[in-house]
């Protein structure tokens, strides 16, 4: 009997815990660039990109070739036992890309959460302090420490009890929802007054553009004031670039557009073109704060993933993907603003580079998030052959994370499908 999405979903429900969510009831069979085919042979345009993992598309030929070549040499030794050059070469290339005119070192690990965990470890060791300040609506991962930093209880921490302490929550500036830069800075000062002295805070961690939180970009003046505050109190600034990195925002790292540099930068997702790889890059003096053996992991910096990431870096240069990111982003925003003009339920179209989202409200009221319509649009788009993602604290944001390598005609068709959905549903 041939496989169907429904039959595989039944097997999944019996074999996989319900805590592992699934947005679309589809089982992918194969993919190429920005196209996915399911087990029933149906074709979809992929505007999700594996949640920002496929900036260079599914199975980019250069990435595939690099992985195939590496597989003829070795697949694993554990870098802490026997080292290999691709790890070192990638660390060098990442350090050259991360903003900051200072000596840097780079740690490679496996997942975004692992990168954030290690960034906090490094900050604590470098400062001799334990506290961390994170922001409202932040997403930093699903491990225990990163759940403390993530600013969304349901579904990520629901039913799990209190997470590790020493984490304090400041307001992320959000003009659309009435949080000014002054308000956000004042919320940090309230933490200093009410909860923890500056000398107790090791780091402030921030997404330059919030991912799961709704694609809100931090204003440049806020980042500059945050940098000055950290310098004043000896606090390390951690830029979580797991979702914003690898060219998604039109620069290789979003902090390049913020006018200041972080002390530590986390990266993951699209850095290795679909292979599990993440890391932390920062000032050498901070990165060296932990003694040998305190960093690493069995699979950390896998040779296969390192080969893929080095190929990704070459693809960005050869195909000029940073300029492509900016062009794709402008195309998306222009098309979505046309939809907004017809359908005022779209309260805002926003984005940095190709990290673009629309936020939906009932009656145009920012205090009435319209999660129902978002859900309906995502389903209808899927029925029409387009894979979309939602996000936001109230699930009322539709985000676009299409591969930067998407053909223009396919990008145009995907945007037409979004417009059709609003015409039919809004």
From TrEMBL:
InterPro entries: 4NH2But_aminotransferase_bac, Aminotrans_3, Aminotrans_3_PPA_site, Class-III_PLP-dep_AT, PyrdxlP-dep_Trfase, PyrdxlP-dep_Trfase_major, PyrdxlP-dep_Trfase_small
Record-linked CDD domains: OAT_like
E.C. number(s) listed in UniProt: 2.6.1.19
This protein's UniProt keywords: Aminotransferase, Pyridoxal phosphate, Transferase
GO MF entries: 4-aminobutyrate:2-oxoglutarate transaminase activity
Group of enzyme by EC: transferase
UniProt keyword Signal present: no
Cofactor(s) the protein requires to work: pyridoxal 5'-phosphate
Transferase listed as a keyword: yes
NCBIfam families: GABAtrnsam, PRK08088.1
Family of this protein: Belongs to the class-III pyridoxal-phosphate-dependent aminotransferase family.
Protein name (database record): 4-aminobutyrate--2-oxoglutarate transaminase
Species the sequence originates in: Serpens gallinarum
Gene (UniProt): gabT
